[in-house]
Amino acid sequence: SAVISQKPSRDICQRGTSLTIQCQVDSQVTMMFWYRQQPGQSLTLIATANQGSEATYESGFVIDKFPISRPNLTFSTLTVSNLSPEDSSIYLCSVEWRMGYEQYFGPGTRLTVT
Amino acid sequence: ELKVEQNPLFLSMQEGKNYTIYCNYSTTSDRLYWYRQDPGKSLESLFVLLSNGAVKQEGRLMASLDTKARLSTLHITAAVHDLSATYFCAVALETSYDKVIFGPGTSLSVIP
Questions:
Q1: Superfamily assignment of A25-107 in CATH?
Q2: For a 10 Å CB count at each end of chain A, is N or C smaller?
Q3: For residues B93 and B84, what is the distance between their CA atoms, to the nearest angstrom?
Q4: Binary contact (A42, B102; C-beta < 8 A)
Q5: If you measure CA to CA, which chain A residue comes closest to B93?
Q6: Mutation for testing the B interface, residue in A103, A109, A110 having most B CBs under 10 Å
Q7: CB pairs under 8 A between A and B
């Protein structure tokens, strides 16, 4: 299995600022994904990040608000820009493993916007 | 558009009892996941079901997949308090295996 770490584990940010979340995997992976989990809700896919190409965003998520970098096969960042209280959520990265037969999740980053 | 439903959304059951959580999805897929999430924690992978008729068991949990009915079940046998958690099913789009859509989750509470 893949071991995934995220930084920071939690943060409290002021409205209008930005937060960059890092996701590190202990093995090279092709596909990385970013999800949002709003309080008490399920997971919603934000975007898919392939190394060497632009991220693919899901409906309702735009690059200006959620820019993503994927500089190599073990690392990705998600930035949540121009924060508002509605962005308060847990953000999770995940990776596809064994040609997509499994998907593992990082520990998550809990963001609170005041 | 792929939609994933689960029922029930909330389940309170007594220790020792059996129960089943259902996961329905709206388009064809042959890859379905079950995850467990404890409060404040990330997701733990429980099962990956890859073909019609697949059945997997781990301890008191057993998952099955019927791709023709677009239905998966998670059966709990003789529940214990440690099983209290939220359980999610998630389905991979057949046309885009890199996209996995989650159900709303079933919050399970096992009471003595």
A1: Immunoglobulins (2.60.40.10)
A2: C
A3: 29
A4: yes
A5: A100
A6: A103
A7: 45
